[in-house]
Amino acid sequence: MGDFIRTWVSGGGIPVILVLMAINACGIPIPSEVVMPVAGIFAAAGHLNVVGVVIAGAAGNLVGSLIAYTLSRRFGRPLLLGPGRRVGISASHLDLADHWFARFGYPAVFFGRFLPVVTTYISFPAGLAKVHPAPFVVLTFAGALVWCSALTALGYGVGANYTRVSGPISKVAIGIAVLVVLGLAAWYLRGRRRRGASTD
Question: Do residue 90 and residue 136 come from a single domain?
Answer without folding.
Answer: yes
